[in-house]
Design goal:
Shape: globular
Radius of gyration: 22 Å
Helix content: 10-25%
Largest sheet: 7 strands, mixed
Length: 408
């Protein structure tokens, strides 16, 4: 079997690339391989609207089924690429199929990082990465009274907020001294810790998991390093992802924690591009450090870049990073990357539940976290993009529009 362009991965990045190819006039053959049986869908909704039951699968599809029928693309779902022959421009799937390609876009994302302790694989221990993951949780929920969530990142906090609304008691365990420690400053962490506690979540910080205990049939609790057992009818593990890149690494691609790509999403292998969660790139908003950005925005933007480069356009990836998280009635919007900041300025009162935090490094604005503060998010983007130097007294005044501070 042969195709002009092979897209491995049917998530946000792969879908964005496929759509961009057609929108930019490509009429050749496109094949998309996805390891799930479903048509491409919006993953962020899994830990929010889909888990809560407010949106069905049909409502979170990136494009309706009819779109794919009319696109002329070949969709191979429920299949996985297990090896790559870069010289022969060919891949092999877990169904024994050999597929030749002209160009390939690797958009496989990642798999949930698993606990390594005893009991990690017991029934009742879940991750939140695929529709099937969440469907298993939904099936069990009628019998669940207490949930233990391991991990205080976005996935863990979002799952905790939804499960609390579903009348579950939630205990959230975080190994670090605060939630969101890897992505936000302390003030935002403390704000969300207080919010979750106010909604009844038992937030425990600086705790280490020893193992998952069970009754011989399923998980019944989480034993901590101090010997204490936290009872659980369900355990949710949200401790990050492992990029799904082994076939490319085995084929000789540069990388490790992700496949290394240049500003045009090219890997070190001929005619192979990598995008999204599994692609490691030098990012200007991280002072040129090689990072992976786990966001829908990054996957979409890199998908478009890879498609246009394949079609001969002289474009490069330089998108401004942005993220969002919905918890209870709080909408967190982030622009930029706050890592390495040396100062922060808060606009508004966190007690009002509408405020923003500006992160600075060497006097320049590098990121904003905005809670129920859409105007600051929209206007603050220009400050981040300009690496603006601003008057801190004005920056901390909510009455002073951020758009008036872009001067550097």
């Amino acid at each position: 079997m042969q195709c002009d362009i092979l897209i491995v991965g049917a998530g946000h990045g792969g879908t964005a690339a496929a759509i961009a190819l057609r929108q930019n006039g490509f009429v050749g053959s496109i094949m998309m391989i996805g390891n799930e049986l479903e048509l491409p869908y919006e993953r962020p909704a899994l830990s929010k609207e889909y888990l809560s039951g407010t949106k069905s699968l049909e409502r979170i599809l990136i494009r309706p089924a009819q779109f794919w029928k009319e696109s002329g693309m070949i969709m191979r779902l429920g299949e996985r690429v297990i090896s790559v022959d870069p010289e022969g421009h060919q891949v092999t799937t877990d169904q024994g199929l050999s597929i030749g390609y002209g160009s390939m876009i690797w958009a496989t994302g990642g798999s949930p990082r698993r606990l390594s302790c005893v009991g990690h694989d017991l029934p009742g221990v879940h991750s939140v990465r695929t529709r099937a993951d969440v469907d298993r949780m939904i099936t069990e929920l009628p019998e669940v009274r207490q949930v233990v969530v391991i991990g205080g990142g976005y996935i863990g906090l979002e799952a905790a907020s939804v499960l609390t609304k579903l009348n579950c008691r939630v205990v959230l365990l975080e190994a670090l001294p605060r939630v969101l420690a890897r992505v936000a400053g302390e003030e935002l962490s403390r704000f969300f810790e207080a919010e979750h506690r106010a909604h009844g979540v038992d937030v425990r910080l600086g705790v280490q998991v020893d193992c998952i205990v069970g009754d011989g049939q399923r998980a019944t609790g989480v034993r901590l390093a101090d010997g204490h057992v936290v009872p659980a009818d369900m355990v949710i593990v949200g401790i990050g992802i492992v990029p799904a890149v082994q076939p490319l690494i085995d084929a000789g691609a540069e990388g490790g924690n992700g496949v290394h790509v240049d500003e045009q999403c090219r890997s070190s292998l001929p005619d192979i591009y990598a995008i999204g969660d599994c692609a490691a790139h030098a990012n200007g908003f991280a002072d040129g450090a090689v990072i992976r950005l786990e966001s829908v925005q990054n996957a979409n933007d890199q998908g478009v870049i890879a498609a246009r480069v394949i079609l001969g356009h002289d474009v490069a990836y330089a998108a401004t990073p942005w993220f969002w998280s919905n918890q209870y009635d709080l909408k967190l919007q982030t622009v930029g990357l706050s890592g390495g900041h040396d100062a922060t300025v808060t606009r508004g009162d966190p007690a009002s539940r509408s405020f923003s935090i500006t992160y600075l490094k060497a006097g320049r604005v590098i990121a904003l976290d905005c809670v129920n503060a859409v105007r600051d998010y929209v206007q603050g983007r220009k400050l981040v993009e300009a690496r603006a130097v601003v008057d801190l007294s004005l920056l901390g005044n909510p009455a002073q529009p951020l758009k008036e501070m872009v001067s550097a």
